[in-house]
Amino acid sequence: MPFINIKMTPGPTAEQKARFIAEVTKLAAEVLGKNTATTHVVIEEVPADSWGIAGETVAARKKRGA
Q1: 2, 10, 12, 47: which one is catalytic?
Q2: How many domains does the chain have?
């Protein structure tokens, strides 16, 4: 029973997240041979000002166009 936790900044629509969950579930079945009925996928949205890359928040990186 895999538990797949995906963290991302907000932005994708509910429809995009639903498709992403479906595709990740299918990928776990194809690559790992896992049962889709027992595969759990959770998307956690982390605010851009609470996520850092290379010592800088994602919000600051987006603001400067990085």
Answers
A1: 2
A2: 1
